[in-house]
Amino acid sequence: SGRALTLDRVDGVTKLIVDSETEQILGAGIVGPGAGELIGEAILAIEMAAVPADLEWSIHPHPTLSETIMEAAQGVFGQSTHVYRPKR
Prior knowledge:
Structural class: alpha+beta
Distance between the termini: 24 Å
Helix content: 25-40%
Radius of gyration: 13 Å
Number of helices: 4
Shape: globular
Oligomer: single chain
Strand order of the largest sheet: 1-2
Order of helices and strands: HEEHHH
């Protein structure tokens, strides 16, 4: 995350737990700086029965730590902008 780099903190992770059949978000795991403030978006997504596309297409300002939630949602589809995926 661009914001994590400016904080000199690259030790966090954001994960979404998604039902593979319905794509409904079932849970989230957020560790790192600002995790306590980021979890609210995941809780709202679960409460409203959101799918990763809902989070992917929601506006997340740059650079903010909240972008990690968008990146996690994009990762469900294998297209996260800032995650390096080596060719197999």
